[in-house]
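[User]
If only I could read backbone structure tokens as easily as an amino acid sequence. I have put the entry right below:
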Amino acid sequence: MIVLSSSEIMMAIESTQKLERYYNNLLLIKIYTHPR
């Protein structure tokens, strides 16, 4: 069992949120630059 400190958990949550924003931006760019 791995025990993480609360600061490590917060860092992980922040990094995943940044990744989600990055991928959402990529999807938006693809949609806008390649209209149907």
Summary: The mean pLDDT is 89. The radius of gyration is 16 Å. The helical segments are 6-33. The CA atoms of residues 11 and 35 lie 36 Å apart.
